Fold this sequence. Notes:
The chain has helices spanning 2-10, 17-25, 30-53, 59-67.
Amino acid sequence: MLAYAEKLTRTPAAVTDADTQALHAAGFSDAQVWEATFTTSIFALFNRMADAFGLEPPEHLLEALERE
């Protein structure tokens, strides 16, 4: 599943039916494949929009990361 998500992120045009068939063969249901595809895609959308508009995380989140 992680290899599928990475392929969908890095080279989405290269994803084929064979990729989803491999996930089904590994035991993932249609719903699980759909959810992984949706989650991967929505994260890519949000990240691309944030990059395009130069959005930065809120200051309180950056401070929390620095404390860790």
